[in-house]
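tokens incoming
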């Protein structure tokens, strides 16, 4: 049975300028971003975006600066209005919501975690975490109890009486996540949420998000310019360039089969042994003897260490205690070699 997406974007265009509707036909006729700017002084922010985001998954939208990723996420709650297209959330066209409906969407269905934390400096950690419930008119005890629950879950128990300027950057971002979770919304929008953090703290925050997601199964739309972060977090990966989707799909598949020279260049320097999962390289069982069992979700690096580099070995691949395939170490070695992009070949 086909899954119904939690969020669908259909034919979404965004043109920045004084008269976007007037120049839209030019874009629909094939005018490039460069020509639109030079001839009409308008900027093409998004171009024919068609993306489905499934419930309970982390959809990561990535691209370089200016690719349109932050513009895209702000369309979901209509902080930015599209020039054309449909934005469907739970089967409802967000573009048809009146002011009250849009306000309710932002209060109850979607929460947002920002790159710059966006905490209120004059409020305590507890008060910041309880913001969404306060806006909804919940009583004080409910606000504090729910906010305290999530502060403890993100490792900030005991800090509820502190103020934002008394916390490190990583701790402030934990408050931001607790605030989003306290709102109890189905959808979390995370715009470069970890980009301002130091590398080690950033890794901790990624691990925290994945840990929470195992239990909560939120629909998360995560924006990043970092491919390692995207590959670590994404169930579904969308790569943008100049406002258009270049490739989207399961991250492991994109890494193994980049569909465009732009993607090939993106993935060429990735540590494939650390990022690729055994399930992506496994094949149908053919062997009768195995060097041992390996988990489908382990990375290739773990098998290389276990095999001590012996390419003559074959392992049985397991998932939830059941065999699902085999891993020939020679296939693993082939998967470690990135495809030479057309730009490199030239």
């Amino acid at each position: 049975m086909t899954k119904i997406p939690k969020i669908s974007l259909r034919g979404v265009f965004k043109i920045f300028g004084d008269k976007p509707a007037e120049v839209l036909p030019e874009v629909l006729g094939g005018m490039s971003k460069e020509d639109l700017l030079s001839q009409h002084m308008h900027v093409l922010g998004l171009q024919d975006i068609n993306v489905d985001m499934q419930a309970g998954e982390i959809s990561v939208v990535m691209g370089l600066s200016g690719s349109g990723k932050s513009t895209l996420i702000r369309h979901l709650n209509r902080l930015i209005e599209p020039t054309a297209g449909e934005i469907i959330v739970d089967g409802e066209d967000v573009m048809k919501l009146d002011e009250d409906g849009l306000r309710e969407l932002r209060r109850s269905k979607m929460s947002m975690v920002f790159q710059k934390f966006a905490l209120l400096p004059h409020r305590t950690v507890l008060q910041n975490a309880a913001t969404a419930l306060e806006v909804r008119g919940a009583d004080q005890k409910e606000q504090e109890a729910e906010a305290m629950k999530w502060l403890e879950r993100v490792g900030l128990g005991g800090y509820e009486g502190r103020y934002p300027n008394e916390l490190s950057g990583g701790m402030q971002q934990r408050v931001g996540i607790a605030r989003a979770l306290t709102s109890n919304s189905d959808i979390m929008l995370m715009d470069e949420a970890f980009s301002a953090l130091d590398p080690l703290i950033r890794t901790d925050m990624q691990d925290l998000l994945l840990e929470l997601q195992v239990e909560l199964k939120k629909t998360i739309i995560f924006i990043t310019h970092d491919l390692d972060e995207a590959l670590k977090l994404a169930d579904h990966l969308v790569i943008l360039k100049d406002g258009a989707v270049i490739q989207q799909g399961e991250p492991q598949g994109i890494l193994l089969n980049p569909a465009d020279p732009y993607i090939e260049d993106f993935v060429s320097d990735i540590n494939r042994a650390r990022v690729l999962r055994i399930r992506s390289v496994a094949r149908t069982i053919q062997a009768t003897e195995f060097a041992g069992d390996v988990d489908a979700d382990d990375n290739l690096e773990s098998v290389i260490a276990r095999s001590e580099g012996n390419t003559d070995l074959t392992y049985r691949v397991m998932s939830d205690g059941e065999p699902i395939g085999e891993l020939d170490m020679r296939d693993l070695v082939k998967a470690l070699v990135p495809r030479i992009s057309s730009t490199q070949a030239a």
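note: The radius of gyration is 23 Å.
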